[in-house]
Amino acid sequence: MCDFENGFILCSCKEKKTSKEVLKTDKLEYIWELRTVKKTEWAVGRARLPSSDIGKGLESEWVLLNLEDRNCFDFDYTPKEGDNLVIYPSSNRYYNDFLSYLSFIYTDNKWIEDFYDEIAHLTKQDNKGVLKITNYLDKSKTK
């Protein structure tokens, strides 16, 4: 059974764990980050592409459906053009250590599956938190 099949909330939990504390727990957590581009420059190199599935029911298509259907954030947030939502397992430790991750960019008033490569796009973290499982399921939207 998928952990997130009934939806999720992007929790901006105030209790902060250090990366060492997260790594010591047996429970895998999923971290989200909101990022914005600070500087773009021409560069050549290789960037790690996002995945379409990072496990536990977190597939890019499912996340996009949730983002389109409702406000998944637990704080007052209105997406701005170019905002980047990144989701990754806590086992990756840091944003730049992604082994697998999902990435979405807000463009033309909707979230799309896309990413900023950290070679040509210098980004800044604006907010961060943990994905929490919810029991949200709008029966009218299911087939």
Layout of SSEs?
Blueprint: E1 8-11, H1 19-24, E2 30-40, H2 60-69, E3 84-89, E4 102-107, E5 110-113, E6 121-133
Antiparallel strand pairs: 1-6, 2-3, 2-6, 3-4, 4-5
Give a verbal description of the structure.
This protein has a 6-stranded antiparallel β-sheet, covered by helices on one side. It has one domain (30-136). It has helices at 19-24, 60-69; strands at 8-11, 30-40, 84-89, 102-107, 110-113, 121-133. The protein is built from 2 helices and 6 strands; from the N terminus they run βαβαββββ. β4 (102-107) and β5 (110-113) form a beta hairpin. Residues 19-26 and 137-143 have low confidence and may be disordered. It is mainly β. Helices cover 11% and strands 31% of the residues.
Helix content: 10-25%
**Averaged pLDDT, please?**
76
The spatial strand order of the largest sheet comes to 1-6-2-3-4-5
Number of helices: 2
Provide the structure class.
mainly beta
Q: Can you count the beta strands?
A: 6
Order of helices and strands: EHEHEEEE
Which segments are poorly predicted (pLDDT under 50) over 5 or more consecutive residues?
A: 19-26, 137-143
Strand content: 25-35%
List the keywords.
143 residues; mainly beta; six-stranded antiparallel β-sheet; 2 helices; 6 strands; globular; disordered C terminus
Provide a short characterization of the protein structure.
The chain has helices at residues 19-24, 60-69, and strands at 8-11, 30-40, 84-89, 102-107, 110-113, 121-133.
